[in-house]
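On clarity, I found the account of how folds are encoded harder to follow than it need be. Since the whole study asks how a given chain folds, the encoding of that fold should be made plain. For illustration, here is how one protein appears when written out as sequence plus C-alpha coordinates:
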Amino acid sequence: MIVQKLAEMVVALRRQGYTIVMVEQNFRFAAPLADRFLVMEHGQVIQEFTQSELPARMERLHEYLGV
Protein backbone atom coordinates (compact mmCIF):
# COMPACT_ATOMS: atom_id res chain seq x y z
CA MET A 1 0.00 0.00 0.00
CA ILE A 2 2.82 2.42 0.86
CA VAL A 3 4.65 1.68 -2.40
CA GLN A 4 1.47 2.34 -4.40
CA LYS A 5 0.94 5.68 -2.65
CA LEU A 6 4.57 6.63 -3.27
CA ALA A 7 4.17 5.90 -6.98
CA GLU A 8 1.00 8.01 -7.10
CA MET A 9 2.83 10.89 -5.42
CA VAL A 10 5.74 10.70 -7.89
CA VAL A 11 3.31 10.79 -10.83
CA ALA A 12 1.42 13.74 -9.31
CA LEU A 13 4.63 15.72 -8.73
CA ARG A 14 5.82 15.06 -12.30
CA ARG A 15 2.50 16.34 -13.66
CA GLN A 16 3.10 19.55 -11.72
CA GLY A 17 6.44 19.97 -13.47
CA TYR A 18 8.79 18.81 -10.73
CA THR A 19 11.99 16.98 -11.56
CA ILE A 20 12.50 13.93 -9.37
CA VAL A 21 15.74 12.04 -8.85
CA MET A 22 14.95 8.58 -7.55
CA VAL A 23 17.58 6.15 -6.33
CA GLU A 24 15.83 2.82 -6.10
CA GLN A 25 16.95 -0.80 -5.97
CA ASN A 26 13.49 -2.13 -6.85
CA PHE A 27 13.67 -1.80 -10.63
CA ARG A 28 10.16 -3.15 -11.23
CA PHE A 29 8.76 -0.36 -9.06
CA ALA A 30 10.88 2.44 -10.51
CA ALA A 31 10.88 1.54 -14.22
CA PRO A 32 7.33 2.65 -15.06
CA LEU A 33 7.91 5.98 -13.28
CA ALA A 34 11.19 6.95 -14.94
CA ASP A 35 12.02 8.92 -18.07
CA ARG A 36 15.74 8.16 -17.88
CA PHE A 37 17.78 5.38 -16.29
CA LEU A 38 21.34 5.27 -15.04
CA VAL A 39 22.89 2.01 -13.88
CA MET A 40 25.78 2.37 -11.47
CA GLU A 41 28.41 -0.12 -10.44
CA HIS A 42 31.05 0.65 -7.84
CA GLY A 43 30.15 4.35 -7.99
CA GLN A 44 30.48 4.61 -11.77
CA VAL A 45 27.67 5.05 -14.30
CA ILE A 46 27.94 2.04 -16.60
CA GLN A 47 24.69 2.40 -18.56
CA GLU A 48 22.45 5.37 -19.37
CA PHE A 49 19.28 5.20 -21.45
CA THR A 50 15.74 6.54 -21.84
CA GLN A 51 12.33 4.97 -21.27
CA SER A 52 11.96 4.41 -25.03
CA GLU A 53 15.25 2.45 -25.08
CA LEU A 54 14.24 0.23 -22.16
CA PRO A 55 12.87 -2.73 -24.16
CA ALA A 56 16.10 -2.99 -26.15
CA ARG A 57 18.19 -2.84 -22.96
CA MET A 58 16.28 -5.45 -20.93
CA GLU A 59 18.61 -8.35 -21.75
CA ARG A 60 21.63 -6.36 -20.58
CA LEU A 61 19.74 -5.20 -17.48
CA HIS A 62 19.02 -8.83 -16.60
CA GLU A 63 22.78 -9.38 -16.55
CA TYR A 64 23.42 -6.36 -14.32
CA LEU A 65 20.44 -6.46 -12.02
CA GLY A 66 19.03 -9.94 -12.21
CA VAL A 67 15.58 -8.56 -13.17
